[in-house]
Task: structure prediction
Amino acid sequence: MQSAETIIEELNSILIKQFEVEPGHIHADARLRDDLDLDSLDAADLLIAIEKRFRVRLDDVEVRKLTTVGEMHAYVRQVVADAATGRLSQTAASDQSVSGS
Result:
């Protein structure tokens, strides 16, 4: 399992490389929309980048609730930890029950 510090570093790296956010602007209280200028298309691209990087599935509804970098860090750390311990998110579990898997 990846450490919380490693996950944060990798999330910050995605923001820096893919969205050209200045490293100095990335801190726990930075607002994704207002401070980092990420729009709804950027948010969708960020979600995809995170899912690919960490090989997890994020809940779109939960992701839309995230407003700060710190909230994003905490949410992704939790999803990665749950995936590492074999727990499914409620969305993934619902998807499986609906599909009959």
Summary: The chain has one domain: 4-87. Residues 32 and 68 are 5 Å apart (CA to CA). The chain is about 60% helix and 0% strand.
